[in-house]
Design a protein that fits this description.
Helix content is about 25%, strand content about 40%. The chain is an alpha/beta fold. Helix 1 packs across helix 2. The relative contact order is 0.22. The structure holds 1-O-pyrophosphono-5-O-phosphono-alpha-D-ribofuranose and magnesium ion. The site of magnesium ion (MG) has 3 residues, from loops. It is found in: Cytoplasm. Its cofactor is Mg(2+).
Length: about 180
């Protein structure tokens, strides 16, 4: 079943069952890698909110969660300058930070966030992204955990929006062009 949001139509791309199964294996992998560390999951709002809720419960370890608000997209396009409007209150010095993103597209948002985090002197900074668009990525930092590599097309659902709509769809949809 396709969905219409404003002027655009979207078709199903990843079902909630496919997402659930991948999130569960990401959680198991992260548990292994962070078992002797002091992890704090740092979710990037708003898009991370669904993925963060599922992923954090799939990692069977003591951990903290925190959030930051970054915004750079207007409609389908990145403004190139992420605005940070919610700052981090937790002390992150010496901590093992895992940035939790719904999507890494051009890579611009995380590039800026990583630079901000360096000043807080964490012990390590890793990234988990549910979705990653290799053909759009313009940087060369590593993305440590990727749920799905996807084509360079706009997607919505499972936290991802088009003009702030579509975040509550349980499946992920891709634009029909
Ligand atoms: O790799 P990039 O090209 O920078 O794109 C990825 C970023 O864009 C989206 O955020 P957006 O600015 O739409 O804010 P939102 O999470 O509130 O939707 C998404 O949640 C990532 O944070
Ligand atoms: Mg958005």
């Amino acid at each position: 079943m396709s969905k219409k949001i404003h002027d655009k139509s979207f078709e199903i791309f990843l079902t909630k069952e496919e997402i659930e199964s991948r999130v569960s294996s990401l959680g198991a992998q992260i548990k292994k890698d962070f078992v002797r560390k002091d992890p704090v999951l740092l979710g990037v709002l708003k898009g991370c909110f669904v993925f963060m809720a599922d992923l954090s419960r799939a990692i069977d370890l003591p951990l903290e969660v925190s959030f930051i608000r970054l915004q750079s997209y207007e409609g389908f396009h990145s403004t190139g300058k992420p605005q940070i409007s919610l700052s981090i209150k937790e002390k992150l010095e010496g901590r093992d930070i895992l940035i939790v993103e719904d999507i890494v597209d051009t890579g611009n948002s995380i590039y800026h966030l990583k630079k901000e985090l360096e000043d807080l002197k964490p012990s390590s900074v890793s990234i988990v992204a549910l979705l990653y668009k290799p053909d759009a990525f313009r940087f060369n930092y590593p993305i440590d955990y990727v749920g799905f590599e996807i084509p360079n097309k706009f997607v919505v659902g499972y936290g991802l929006d088009y003009d702030d709509l579509g975040r509550n769809l349980p499946d992920i949809y891709q634009v029909i062009d």
